[in-house]
Amino acid sequence: MKIIIHVNHIELTSTIKAHVEEKIGLLVRHMDPKHEDLAEARVEVGKPSEHHHKGNIFYAEVNLKIGKGLMRATAENKDLYAAVNHCRDELEKQLQKHKTKHGHSF
Fold first, then answer.
1. Most buried of 2, 34, 75, 100 (most Cβ within 10 A)?
2. Domains in the chain: how many in total?
3. Which residue range(s) make up the domain with 81?
4. DSSP H or E run through 100
5. pLDDT band for position 50 (cuts 50, 70, 90)
């Protein structure tokens, strides 16, 4: 699976990059191996704006494209890593739901 990371109003550190690649990369275990190479995850992480009034709020948004299928998850949290984890959990649920509904993995 190809993972493309974009950042907004923050610096992409090696720690953030490693966390996103590790957590979003775990989604492949819910995919059919033949679709793994077709999958692309576009991940955007950062702050909604430079001047957020509620303190440090981070967001993560993941668009997971598998062939013609598209799944999306977004999260906001005071902890950037928790927001990424929430998106991963949401996409795992969507992949499971698709598998149950359609009888096969993406």
1. 75
2. 1
3. 2-102
4. helix 80-102
5. low
